[in-house]
Amino acid sequence: MPISLADFAVAIVLLFGVPLLLVLVAKRNRRWAAWCGAWISVFILVGNAVEKLATGQSGLF
Question: What residues does each domain of the chain span?
Answer without folding.
Answer: 5-52
